[in-house]
Write a structure and sequence with these properties.
Layout (H helix, E strand, L loop, with lengths): L1 H36 L5 H12 L3 H25 L6 H39 L2 H7 L4 H40 L3 H11 L2 H27 L5 H30 L4
Amino acid sequence: MAAPVSSAALAWLGRSVLGAVEGVGALALVAGRTAWALPRLERRELARGLVQFGYGSLPLALATAAMAGVIVVVQAGIYIQRFGARAFLGWAAGYGVLWEFGPLLLGLIMSARIGARNAAELATLKVGGQIEGLRGIGLDPFALLVAPRVVAMEVSMLALSTFTFLVAILCEAVAAKLTLNLPLRVFFGTFADMLSPFDIVGGVVKTGAFGLAISLVSTAVGLRAKGGARAVGEAAASAVVLGCAAIFLLDFLLTTLLSRWS
């Protein structure tokens, strides 16, 4: 009775490994062809991507940053008061936003909002035959559709991170004043004294890596879509799931790597 179970487990393991290798190969192919097409990218598509990805996501990103800043202070305030370390709240809250909560929340928002949209649009073009049609008339889909979206996502993520970090820190300072009666000069004093420029660079590096992962994963998923309308929905859902998984994996790797130089 044990043999069929073992065979089924081995078959499942083999399919999983092959699927993972195929996915990594597709992702590497998309990254390589996108890099090759960068000098010839379509500027109008780039401008459209910047408006949709960056400007269109600004209200949601700022609202999330404000709420995240308040929640971090409220949660940290419990332990800060318990151990009598109110003076370190500025450093702790700022470090948490710059290194972890800011890049992570922004990445998850963009994966759900933009990654799903990018995958659905490319999947629609793929199953509708427009991608093959572009190749048929000698045009490169990566220069027209993919490279502009990857660049737009990267620029949008880095620009949004600047605004979201500022809003989150300002909301943290206000929340600390209102909930813990911590003076603003004390909050920003420890923030400025104990945080280094490398802490800001670490958050920017994470944000850039998350943006690149979201754009490449959603593009690879969209271009691999096969079938009809169901394939479009499946591509959008897969882009969100795989994008979030890539973000958490990169977060672990970058935190481990960057913390050695902090």
